[in-house]
Design a protein that fits this description.
single chain; 100 residues; 0% strand; extended
Amino acid sequence: MQISAQQVQRVLEKTSRAEAAAELAHPVHSVEELAEKYGVEPNDVERFSNRAAHAGEDPYREQRITELAQKVMTGAYEVAPEQVVDMAERRAIADRSRLL
């Protein structure tokens, strides 16, 4: 028996909707609840939340983005193979953690 790409897509969409509904049905109201829900330490949640909240306040972000865009457009931007592997590993870990 073969499963078509459309059938797989329908299952993924239904699963995503079911997960979203479950999230809305059981919202978290504190850092402690969030940490318990995802099985992490409350201190880690607070630390990363604070880091994310302050990330928008980086006064040099715009300048770094402009410099990066110029490097990409001129062909001067190079990525080391080790950086690609590191990013792929981090992405795989993030993807797996979503499934838990």
